[in-house]
Amino acid sequence: MAHCSSDPSGKGHGQDTSSESIAVSSGSVDQAMKPVLFEIFGEIWNVQARLGQGVSASVYRVSSGGASTAAVKEFQADTQGGDYGYHKERSVLEDIQGHKNIVTLYGVFTNHSPAGVATRCLLLELLDVSVSELLVRVNTQGQAGVPQGGGSQPQGHSMWLVQHCARDVLEALAFLHREGYVHADLKPRNVLWSADDECFKLIDFGLSFKEGNQDVKYIQTDGYRAPEAERQNSLAQAGLEVDGDCSAAVDLWSLGIVLLEMYSGIKLKDTVRTYEWKCNSAAIVDHIFTGNSVMYPAIPVYHLRDLIKSMLHNDPKQRGTPQAALLNPFFSIPFAPRIEDLVLLPSPVLRLLNLIDDSHLHNEEEYDDISEDIKEECQKYGSVVSLLIPKENPGKGQVFVEYANAGDSKEAQRLLTGRTFDGKFVVATFYPLSAYKRGYLYQTVQ
Known about the structure:
Layout: E1 22-23, E2 37-40, E3 43-53, E4 57-64, E5 68-75, H1 84-95, E6 105-112, E7 118-124, H2 131-138, H3 159-178, E8 181-182, E9 191-194, E10 199-202, E11 209-210, H4 227-237, H5 249-264, H6 275-292, H7 298-311, H8 322-325, H9 339-344, E12 349-353, H10 358-361, H11 364-378, E13 384-388, E14 399-403, H12 406-416, E15 420-421, E16 424-425, E17 427-431, H13 433-438
Antiparallel strand pairs: 1-3, 2-3, 3-4, 4-5, 5-7, 6-7, 8-11, 9-10, 12-14, 12-17, 13-14, 15-16
Helix pairs in contact: 3-5, 5-7, 6-7
């Protein structure tokens, strides 16, 4: 399991809790029967929400003091005395720490409840939104986050976002496989966005194993399970001897399905169960791309299609490696984000539209006054580090507000969107901190 932010002083969100768990973002929580607090390394951390609950563990968002936030994965007390799930995930996470696209483990501790029950816990980086949630949101939001009416066709994610996610996950897998590990449960709920590191991170290593030493009978989640894992699971369920372990190639298969879902906006769980898919998945991939290609330039679409098809060979030996996939021409094409992307992916920087017109920009006194007014308003939601209102393109008349952390900017984005200013509706999107710091202002695709 896991989550995102580069230090336990918090900034992020989400997790999953086992191969059967429910990973939830900070915006969708279950408050029922959650503990009130954890004592972690001699410090009291208050439980703010349950983020996910699975068969063997629950995940909570916790805070210490004012600003520090993190995630706690609490494993159920093992009446058999084995604590296998805890020890397994802890050992894998401790062995693979240090990569920017893999969730950070801050520490481990034992929690003692008022009832006297001792449970094993992981203190993890807190992450934001999962790819699963992004897929839901992109189909319930129109331009700039305006809800769409019912009955609309599924929308896929932009090429910018698909490329960003694909690169980050492939980097994580390249590192993981070099360390000798197979993730064995890659799915949209286990890929989460880090607002502070501006990247996607891989979480939930409860089914992971060392290649050549598979110690888990049933791997991967239905809908993202490679053919060889499907066969292995079926044999194990029938009580038959399994001949050989699955390889790291199962992770490439799962990623291929994830990327196809992101591109198409369609969940493929039922599709991959069909006889047609098993006989000729490449033809179905071609059909999906033919149906969507009108939305995108032809050449980038074909590169993405070929990348996905390379991951979906029935023969695991033909799927290649993450390193080879990263050399695909798809990753050499620069894409600009759409407005919807900047609404979906939190960062410490907000971009406000519909606030400024030319008259404000060319009158120095008005410019200074409105800058002060906007800063004063934005400071109601958190600590403002800087504010920029370009007088020329790119970015002319847009307002960029840098907050001290993503938590403050998320609160500001929620409260500012839809407000009126001089009779105009304010649109508040997030903006990549790295681009803002470099002075690079995207001309976003509408």
